[in-house]
């Protein structure tokens, strides 16, 4: 009898495994971190101010990709540098291929022959999309570690509860500034802006590696003057001089939004602090 009980315990233990998840960027790791159970671990492929728009893989990155139990990336419309390495793996979740995740159209293509995103890849900035991402990842974690299925489902419920609470807080923070217009450096915040109905008047570029032309800059500067725009936002990953020159001679201030949460440490509820940081930086600039 004791031998049978011991054998059952050993078999159950053999089915339990710690899952190591590698996300390409910090906000995606933040989401995953909210969903894992004790023993699991998360990490980010890109560190510091590295941007997924122009990153170059290192040999050590390839090793980390191979060793991870699960790799979370948006897809070729963002991390083009990963297309070939990912094609050799069967451990990747490609978010842009998930039918359950509602993607935002980027608008007209440039017609220049180069590959440019047809969908907005910045899904982690949308509360609705973040919920959808969390569900996809939870299903994958359960598939990898079914013994902890109940715990993963409980984590997802907690994620959705915290999201509802965070959204309510952000709605209250933004409410007094819904009519205040602003510009951003690149079109990264569409999911956030659509969800919270903020008054973005435009952006300098759709993709940060593409510099805005002279006509675009003249049009932006004219709008800033005519509509008395309060703020133009840069990003820590990119500090283009064109923003300073465009704002010069107007009443607009230069603020900063960080779509990657560089200064936020990955920890419990860090994803929700990250969303709140976008709201806080918007309101801090628009309020003054």
TrEMBL record:
Instruction: Write down a Pfam family by its short name.
Output: ZnuA
Matching entries from PANTHER family are given as:
HIGH-AFFINITY ZINC UPTAKE SYSTEM PROTEIN ZNUA, HIGH-AFFINITY ZINC UPTAKE SYSTEM PROTEIN ZNUA-RELATED
Function text: Part of the ATP-binding cassette (ABC) transport system ZnuABC involved in zinc import. Binds zinc with high affinity and specificity and delivers it to the membrane permease for translocation into the cytoplasm.
Q: Which GO terms describe its molecular function?
A: metal ion binding
- State if Transport is listed as a keyword: yes
Which InterPro entries does this UniProt record tie to the protein? Bact_metal-bind_prot9 (IPR050492), Lipoprotein_PsaA-like (IPR006128), ZnuA (IPR035520), ZnuA-like (IPR006127)
Q: Which residues form the signal peptide?
A: 1-18
* Superkingdom of the source species: Bacteria
This protein's GO CC annotations: periplasmic space
Q: Tell me one GO biological process term.
A: cell adhesion
Q: Where in the cell is it found?
A: Periplasm
This protein's name:
High-affinity zinc uptake system protein ZnuA
What organism does the record attribute this protein to?
A: Vibrio orientalis CIP 102891 = ATCC 33934
Q: Which family does it belong to?
A: Belongs to the bacterial solute-binding protein 9 family.
- Keyword terms: Disulfide bond, Ion transport, Metal-binding, Periplasm, Signal, Transport, Zinc, Zinc transport
Record flagged with keyword Membrane = no
